[in-house]
């Protein structure tokens, strides 16, 4: 939560975030399984209509939960129109570590990022190979 330009932890929402990280990294559950469990428990996400694997992955990749702040996620390529677009490497990101109190311990954050990368590289069997 942001108040007076500062970030504060909403403990109720933080508990759900901690559960998501634990289930994914420590219990080895998939984003789909976690979304299903949260849906079944009646927990509602803050910024989405309902839990889905993409929502879970977005939470797992969000550096704010580790206490970091990443700037330049969006850029304004045309100063005349002021239209913003996502920064896909056109400009360097600026990351400020330990900017605010973390919800997730740094060690768990790093383990989760490694697990996300590991699972992304894992080959998947297609329907043709079954």
If you had to describe this structure to a student in words, what would you say it looks like?
The chain is built from four helices and six strands. With 130 residues, it is of the alpha+beta class. Strands 1-2 form a two-stranded antiparallel sheet. It has a two-stranded antiparallel sheet with strand order 3-6. Helix 2 (31-40) packs across helix 3. The longest helix is centred in the first third of the chain and has 16 residues, at 11-26.
Euclidean distance between termini CA atoms:
47 Å
Radius of gyration: 17 Å
The helix count comes to: 4
The portion of residues assigned to helices is 25-40%
**Total E-strand runs:** 6
Strand content: 5-15%
Query: What structural category characterises the helix and strand content?
Result: alpha+beta
Overall shape: globular
Average pLDDT, all residues: 89
Largest sheet entry: 2 strands, antiparallel
Low-confidence stretches: none
Strand order of the largest sheet: 1-2
Q: Helix and strand string, N-terminal first?
A: EEHHHEEEEH
Layout of helices and strands:
Blueprint: E1 2-3, E2 6-7, H1 11-26, H2 31-40, H3 53-61, E3 69-71, E4 74-75, E5 85-86, E6 94-96, H4 106-121
Antiparallel strand pairs: 1-2, 3-6, 4-5
Helix pairs in contact: 1-4, 2-3
């Amino acid at each position: 939560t942001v108040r007076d330009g500062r970030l504060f932890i909403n403990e109720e929402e933080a508990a759900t975030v901690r559960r998501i990280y634990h289930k994914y990294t420590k219990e080895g559950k998939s984003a789909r399984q976690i979304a299903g469990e949260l849906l079944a428990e009646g927990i509602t996400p803050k910024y989405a209509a309902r839990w889905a694997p993409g929502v879970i992955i977005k939470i797992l990749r969000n550096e704010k939960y580790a206490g970091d702040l990443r700037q330049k996620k969006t850029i304004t390529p045309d100063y005349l129109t002021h239209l913003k677009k996502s920064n896909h490497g056109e400009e360097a990101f600026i990351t400020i570590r330990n900017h605010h109190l973390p919800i997730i311990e740094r060690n768990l954050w790093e383990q989760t990022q490694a697990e996300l990368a590991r699972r992304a590289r894992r080959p998947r069997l297609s329907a043709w190979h079954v």
